[in-house]
Structures are given as C-alpha cells and as structure tokens.
Amino acid sequence: MTPLSPRPDDPTHATLQVIGERLAAHYGPLHWWPAETAFEVVVGAVLAQNTAWTNVELAIANLKATGVLGPAALAALPEPELAELIRPSGTYRVKATRLKALLGWLGLDWQRRLAGDLDVARVGLLAVPGVGPETADAILLYAAGYPTFVIDAYTRRILGRIGVRPAVDTYEGWRGLFMQAVPPDIRGYNEYHAGLVHLAKDHCRVKPACSGCPLRSLCITGGGSGRLPARASL
Description:
Blueprint lengths: L10 H17 L10 H10 L5 H13 L5 H6 L2 H7 L6 H15 L3 H5 L3 H9 L6 H11 L9 H10 L8 H11 L4 H17 L32
Helix pairs in contact: 1-11, 1-12, 2-3, 2-9, 5-6, 8-9, 10-12
C-alpha cells in the first residue's frame, strides 16, 4: 500500500493508515476478488448481495457447469432459467431480475461500457435497478480496475469497534473517509478491503474473537486504547 503522510492534526487518517499496514503485514497479499475472470466479478457482485460467499460460489458453479457464464450466454438465457441456476445465492428471482437489468445496461461489450471516467461509470451503474453503491464499487474496483473503495458491513463493524466513524454515517460518508485518507491506488484499495473481509471472518465476527487480532491494541472492543502508539508503526 502506498505510504501516507497524515497530518499531525488528523488522527483518523493516521489510524486508517496503521490499520492498512497491520492488515497487510498480518495477511500478506490476498489477491482478492476470488474469481477467474473480470466478468465473473460482475456477476458475483450481484449474487453476493445479502448472502454468504459460499452461497455465491455454488451459484457461480452452476453457471459455469451449464456454460452460460459469459455476457452473450447470460443475455440470451431466459430469466426463469437464470433464477433457477442462481438459486443457491438466495433471493434468486430478485437477483435474476437485477442481473438481467445490469447486463442490459452493460451490453455485450461491457468493458467498454465501463471505460473512461470513474464518476461517469459509477453514476451509470447506480442508475441500474438493484445496483447499490457497494455493488457498483465492487464492480468498478475488482472488474473494471478503478480506484474506488468498497464499503461493506464488515468495514463498518471493524472501524466502529475501533472507534473510527465518518461525520455522516452513510455509505458515501464511509467511502469518502477512506478515499480521503488512503491514496487512490487500485492494488492498495483491493488489498485493504480484502484484509478487512478476512479480519471480519477470522476475528471481528458478530461475537468477536479478539485473540490474535492484529488490530486489537487499537480496538476499544478488544480492550485496546483506541489510540495510536506514539509512533505509528507495525
């Protein structure tokens, strides 16, 4: 991750830097998102809405097994058939409708549709029914290669327990907090978000398992001070 030079009067930015450094040191390169192709990321971002990743993997496996995990094949597939294939992901009829809407907007040359300016591509995605900001940012970061930070429930949980929150507790408030503090770097955003996902699964669960957590000394919930050490270090 690109090093920051946080202002001395900006403890939130400094804390976010240390969190990123500790996650990187603890986990190493994570190469997130788990997908074989960029288009698989696009589909997975919709299927991942409100479900566990293991369920998404089952749905993706169904699409691969039937040979329809591609823009043209999915566009030609009747929506009821698509719904049955992605049934393991939960709310499968809703997600089939959302996928069809997204694919209709993207078109067959979907990468070209997302090329160009980040803000323009993001506004376009957010106008698609069923595509919220988390889904849009996941597609833009992991499939299209834009430097945009993905905010999910894991991020809010971890940072909330540490005591770091944006002035406005909205998705855009959280995203702005990270994008002001962390340099716009695609790989850096990728690894930082992946580290948060892994930490939430390993330690910062609904019922936290704090032993061995690399952020414990920073975390109020984990018994830490909630303050940075005198020297922001690993």
